[in-house]
Design brief:
Blueprint (H helix, E strand, L loop, with lengths): L8 H8 L1 H32 L9 H24 L21 E6 L9 H6 L4 E9 L5 H11 L6 E11 L10 E36 L2 E36 L2 H16 L4 E5 L17 H19 L4 E6 L6 H5 L3 H4 L5 E4 L10 H13 L8 E4 L1 E3 L2 E4 L2 H13 L4 E5 L6 H6 L15 E2 L1 H18 L6 E3 L2 E3 L1 H16 L6 E2 L15 E5 H18 L5 E4 L2 E4 H18 L5 E5 L5 H4 L20 H11 L5 H15 L1 E2 L8 H8 L1 E2 L1 H14 L4 E9 L4 E11 L2 E5 L15 E9 L5
Parallel strand pairs: 1-2, 1-12, 2-3, 3-6, 6-7, 7-8, 9-12, 21-22
Antiparallel strand pairs: 4-5, 10-11, 13-16, 14-15, 17-20, 18-19, 23-24, 23-26, 24-25
Amino acid sequence: MSKKCPKSVFSKIGHGGGKIKRKLFFAMLVITCLALLSVSNVFATTENLNIPVNTSENIENATLNSTIMEDTREDTTNSTQSNEHSYDTQNSTTAAGGETYDDIHGVWLWSSDIGDIDVNALKNAGITDIFVFVRNTDSTSTYQTILNSILAKLEGTGIGVHAWITCFKDANGNWVDPQGIYSYTVQLPYTEKYQSWYKSWYKKWYKKGYKSGYKYRGRWRYRWRYYWTYYWAYTWKYSWAYRTAYRTETRYGQSSEHIDKLINTISEITKNYNIDGIHLDYVRYSGVGENAAYKHPGGTEAITNFVQKVYNTVKTIKPAVAVSAALMPEKSVNAYYYGQDYGQLSQYLDFLVPMIYKGNYGQDTNWIASTTKYIVEHSNGKPVIAGIQTYKSDSAPTKLSSDELKQDIQSAVNNGASGYVLFRYGLIDENFLNTGYSVVPTGPPVEDSVQIAFDEIKNASTNLKAYVESNGKLPEYVQISGKQISTAQFLKILIMCVLQLDKGITTPIELEDVDAAPDPYGDSINGNIYKAEYIEIAKNLVEFINLNGRAPNYGNSSLGKISFDYLVYNFSKIIDFYISNNRLPNYTIFESWRIGTMTSQIPAELLIYLQPTANCQSNDSRIISMANLLTAGITSTYEKATKIFEWVRDNCSYTFYYNTKYGAVEMLNRRNGNCIDHTHLIVALARAVGIPARYAHAQCEFTSMTVGHVWAELYVNGNWYTADATSYRNTFGTQNNCKILYWKGRYAELPF
C-alpha cells in the first residue's frame, strides 16, 4: 500500500483552492516584498546620514539605528555564520557603517587618568579619538565604570571613544598562548637498575694475651702468652637490583576558555555601550625565547584567526564600530617573532596602529618615516595610524618637546600614515595640547641619490678589514664619502662592487637603505671558498636584500652558514685583495674565529645561563682567574669554549658517587669528582668568561651500567654544544662514552 505524502502550504494554495486562493497568495507575496523594501530603505537612510552616534543632538537617531539592528540580528545570524567574510574589507578605507579612518588624531588613555583629562585641551589639539584602557585579561576592575565615566565626560564633544583591550597578557604580566596551549605534568613509571647495598659478615682474627703463672725460688712469677681468636665484623657490598621509579613528563592540552572570555567581553562592550571602536592590544606573542611566534607552528595563523573572530563579532552587532589593533613595528620580521602579519591582519581591521616608538628602539625621526612607509606598503590599502611615543623612552619618561613631537607626526604622515595616536595622555607636552597641530601631508622629502665612488669603497674596505683584525669585531658604522653608514648598507655596497669588478666595471654604486640583520648567526667554519662560489653568494645576497629590504642573518655556502659579520669582513678582504693585485682573488679564506661580535650578542632569554649559583660559583675569584688564564689571547668564543672543555677533561679524574659533593670551586682544587662536579666546573669557567652554559641531565647507558648522567652544554655561535668532560673519548660537541636513553631535563641551576 502506498501512503499519501502530507500536503504543504503551497500545495494547498496552488492546487486545492482554485483561482481565488492563487490570487490571495500572490497578493500576500506582493505585500511582503513591499514591507521588506521599506525596512531596507530605513537601513540605507541611516547609513547614508553617517550620524555620529555620540553627539547629543543625534542620540534619538542613533538609538533608532541601534534598535533596528538589534531587531533584525536574529534573522541575520544564520547567514553570517555561513559566510564569515560577509563584510568585504579589501581595498577600502570605509567601515561597514560608513565611517572613514583617514584623518585620526588619537590619544591612548589609562583609565586612571580619566578624572584628569582636560577636554578643552584635547579639542584645542584637534584630538578626534580617545583609546581608553578598559580591560586587562582576568582583571578584577570592571569596564562598566570606565566606559560610563569616559562617555559621560566626552558627551557632545565629537571625540570618538575606542575600548582598548589587552588580549594575550594577563593582569599579572603573564603571557597567554593564543592557541590555547597549556602544559601539565604526569608521573610515568619505569624500571630502574640500582646498586642494592648489604652487610657481608666475616671473622676478624686477632691475638689475645693472658698471664701464665709459675713459681721460681718460692715466689710466684708470670709471663704473657697469646692465642688467636676472632669476632664477627662486616663490610658493605652491593649487587645490582631493579625497582620501579617515576619520571616527570610534560604534556600539553588545548583550551579555548581564554579566547571565549575575550570574545564575550568584546561582544558585551560593543552591544551595551555607545563606543566608536574596539582596539586590541598585546594581540601577539612576546617575541622572545620560547614565546616567540616562530617557536609555535601555526602561531601567526592563530593571531589572524583571533582578530578575524573579533571583527566578525563586532560587525555582526554594530557594523559602524571600528576594529583596530596596536601592532609591533618590526617590519619584515614582525610575523616571525610576534605572529603579526600586516597583510593578513589588514583583512580584519578597519585601521592598523603600529607602535612606532623611536625612543624604545634607540632610533630617530627618519626611522619613523621608513617604518611607516614599509607598513603602509604592506597593509593592502588599509589606513595606517602611526602610534607615536610622546616621551624619550620607557627607561627615560621625559616628555618630548612640542616641536619634536610635531616633527615625528609629520614624518609619519608624509610617508603614508592616515593619522596618529599618541602614547600617552599625561606625558604630552602642554604646548602641543594648547596650540594643537594641523597635519598636512606633504609627501616624503625628495633626496638626491648618493653615489659612492670606487676609490671610496676601496678605502673603506681596507679600513674595515684592519679594524676587524685588530678588534675581533665589526665597527659600529662605516665612514664613507663623508657619511656614517651601517654595516648592513656597506654589505650591499661591497657585494655590488664585487659583482661589478667581476665584469671589469668600476663605476660608482648608489647608497641604499638596508635594515640590519635581526638575528645574525652562522656556523663555525674555516676553509676556502673559490671565486665562482663567492660570486654566486654575492648574487644571492643581492636578491635577498632587494626582496626583504634588510641584510640576511647568514649566507649559505659549501662550508656552512656564513654569519652576517663574516660576510661583511670577507667581502672587504676581497676588495682589499683587488686593490693590491688589480684582480679578484681566485679564492677567499673564511676564518670564523677572527670575529667575536656574533657570539657577544647574547639573547635576553639566555642571560640566566650566565648567573652564578650555589655550586656554580662563576663569580669566585679563583674560578675567574683560571678561566682568564685558559682563554688568554683567544678572541673566538668557540676556541674559548673548546679550551675550557679540554682542560677539565684532561686535568680532572673521575670518581663515582651520587649528586653534588664539591661544587665548582672545590672541584677546581681537588680535580677529582663525579660527572656532576665535573659539570659544575665547566659551567662556572664558561660563565666566568661570558659564555652561556647550562646543565644537561639524562638517563644514559654506559658499558658497565645504566645510570643518571649530567654534562654541560655551552652556547657558542648561536648553537648549544655538548661538553662532557668525564671521558677522553669525548670532544667538544660530541659525546661518545654513553647512549642517551631518555631526557630528564636541562637547567640553569642543578637541583641536586
